[in-house]
Design goal:
Chain lengths: ~240, ~325
């Protein structure tokens, strides 16, 4: 479904991605793990069109989408839930969700998805008329994910969904990720919480300073000695 | 000082405040989305005055449109309404287009430059437009023909309200209500709000940022242009540097209300217009600018976010 080939991205003179290749197949959860500054978020931002690659391509179902502006990539069905939630603080929960469906015209489908979001996150329904900025961190993450679901994504990219959240909320978030995947949404997940990410992912890639260092099935990486030492804090 | 004077100054202040509010919206719309103060906005107001004047002159020139047409326009209430609709619409549309063109060529190339760069570019545009009018049109003030008879609608004691004041106030309130509904209810209006709250996230929603910015640069100048026509009618003339002081005042109004906040700009406009007019009545006309800018300083000291400036705590 998603194919990234030899992707290079620069911030000014600094080369943040040094030729990344990865693939996400239909129906998979694929995770990208790595230390701070390894290029995880840069990879997502380049895929979603917020950054332009200096070399290499991103394609969705065979169609090249790299080089498009962010709103055009969204139109293709690649939806990014950005790091730090980035919900609209002075819009209500309802309006935030509505913005997620900005490009859609199918009123019926939008209504269905809204119901689904409220089933997944009952908290959002309780706070429907509250301003996004007044929600707790966990609720904001739910809102950001709900907003992503409202776009009816082909590929949902989640950037650090567990960041700064209480462990119990993190568990809820990961349960939802698995549930969404079972309902047919393909997911590309970037995480610092490598243990959690690898336990839900079908496959994973380990990023080190702008390149892919390792790749393999999630469970396998979870038991890989190098991964355990470097990312799971074992000695 | 009698009660009549106070009431009369309130009426004048509300009229003036309406004009400030219209102009202030342009500053606040652009600031909300671009985080940039469009110093060329006072020239949108000036351009509106000139476009209004020229269209009005053209439509009442018998050699151009024929005596019959002129007779229709100036003969009755209906004709006058049509005439002024055309005048205001052309000012709004032409100045709106001017705003879009300025954004495209003077600001967009600097979108990723340090924030000072577009600011300086805006000052350049402002100087350019003033001098273009000075050189190509006239350096002197041009009289604004009093086509519409200004009649006293209401008179009680020493207080009078004339038809022009009512026209200005009603039009302003309608435009403010329209804009408020537009941004809170329509799809594209919500996209504008989303863009002003988080531009990158708005892009991820599929919102075309350039379209939203273009729209802000149409609506703001269009409203400023309408205010310019009113100003010409109210004070009876237009001049190349007429935008400077109302521009500064309206910017002040936008800051008082909380820059970036639409309702704040509306409120700030009226607050400033009323306080300034009261100061002119209580103290002397010479003090009105002093009072206006003193209020700005006070607001900046005691409520830097403005009266309606929202302070939402961003959670990590």
């Amino acid at each position: 479904m998603l194919k990234v080939e030899n992707l290079h991205t620069h911030y000014g003179q600094i080369e943040a991605l040094k030729g990344i290749s990865l693939e996400v197949n239909d129906g998979e959860i694929v995770t990208l793990i790595g230390a701070n500054g390894a290029g995880k978020s840069t990879t997502l931002k380049t895929i979603s069109g917020q950054l332009a690659p200096t070399q290499g391509t991103v394609s969705l179902d065979g169609e090249i989408v790299s080089g498009l502006l962010a709103h055009k990539v969204t139109e293709k069905g690649i939806i990014q839930v950005p790091e730090g939630r980035r919900i609209f603080p002075r819009m209500t929960v309802a309006e935030n969700l509505e913005m997620g469906a900005f490009l859609r015209k199918d009123a019926e489908g939008i209504k269905e998805d809204l119901e689904q979001v409220f089933t997944l996150f009952p908290r959002l329904k309780e706070r429907i008329n509250q301003k996004g900025g007044t929600l707790s961190g966990g609720e904001q993450q739910m809102l950001a994910m709900g907003r992503g679901i409202m776009a009816r994504p082909k590929l949902l990219m989640l950037d650090e969904p567990s960041m700064g959240l209480a462990p119990v909320v993190v568990e809820t978030i990961f349960e939802i990720i698995e549930r969404l995947n079972k309902e047919g949404i393909t997911i590309l997940l970037v995480e610092q919480n490598a243990a959690m990410a690898l336990s839900v992912a079908h496959r994973g890639y380990v990023l080190e300073v702008g390149s892919i260092a390792l790749e393999g099935p999630g469970k396998e990486l979870l038991h890989n000695e190098q991964v355990r030492k470097t990312y799971l804090g074992e000695s | 000082m009698s009660g009549d004077v106070i009431v009369q100054q309130l009426v004048n202040g509300i009229t003036l405040g309406g004009l400030y509010a219209l102009i202030a919206l342009g500053y606040t719309l652009v600031y909300g989305i671009m985080l940039m103060i469009n110093f060329a906005h006072s020239e949108m107001f000036m351009a509106g005055g000139y476009v209004g004047l020229f269209v009005l002159k053209a439509l009442t020139n018998e050699a151009w449109v024929g005596a019959g047409t002129v007779g229709f326009f100036t003969g009755g209430v209906f004709g006058l309404i049509v005439l002024f609709l055309i005048v205001f619409l052309s000012a709004a549309i032409l100045v709106g287009i001017l705003g879009v063109v300025i954004e495209r060529f003077a600001y967009r190339p600097l979108r990723h430059a340090p924030r000072l760069a577009p600011l300086i570019s805006a000052i350049g545009v402002s100087i350019f437009l003033q001098n273009a009018v000075l050189l190509w049109v006239d350096s002197k003030a041009l009289p604004f023909p009093a086509v519409m008879p200004v009649v006293t609608v209401f008179k009680a004691g020493g207080v009078t309200v004339n038809s022009l004041q009512i026209l200005i106030l009603v039009t302003t309130l309608l435009l403010l209500a329209f804009l408020d509904t537009f941004v809170s209810k329509t799809r594209i209006g919500k996209a504008m709000r989303a863009t002003s709250q988080d531009r990158d996230a708005a892009g991820l929603m599929g919102i075309d940022i350039n379209q939203v910015i273009g729209l802000a640069f149409f609506i703001g100048p269009a409203l400023g242009g309408i205010a310019g026509v009113f100003h010409g009618m109210y004070y009876g003339s237009v001049k190349f540097d007429m935008g400077f002081l109302p521009g500064m005042k309206s910017f002040t109004a936008a800051v008082i209300g909380g820059i970036g906040n639409l309702r704040g700009a509306m409120l700030g406009g009226f607050v400033l217009g009323i306080l300034e007019s009261l100061a002119a009545g209580f103290l002397s006309a010479g003090y009105k600018d002093v009072v206006a800018f003193a209020i700005l300083i006070l607001v900046l000291i005691f409520r830097p976010g403005g009266l309606l400036g929202e302070s939402v705590v961003e959670k990590v």
